[in-house]
Amino acid sequence: MELDRRGTELLFQVLTEREEKNSVAIASNESFGGWTKTFTDPRLCAAIVDRLTFGGTIIETGTDSYRLASTRARAEQQAVG
């Protein structure tokens, strides 16, 4: 989903204010390089990525779907047991 400039600015403001007070968790199916599809202003996109990654922990789970793997594991357990 693409955010217009105003939406991106508002999200940036929320992230900036939140960063000063508490943790932020973000989940995305897109790598940071693809975030310009959503945040079409390159400077704002870079600022958002900067805010989210500074002092943070990035956890990459790979390209396989966690939900699909979980469903398959449950199906295998049910078949066995």
UniProtKB/TrEMBL annotation:
Location of the IstB-like ATP-binding domain: 2-71
Pfam families reported for this sequence: IstB_IS21
Organism domain of life: Bacteria
Organism name: Streptomyces macrosporus
Protein name from the UniProt record: IstB-like ATP-binding domain-containing protein
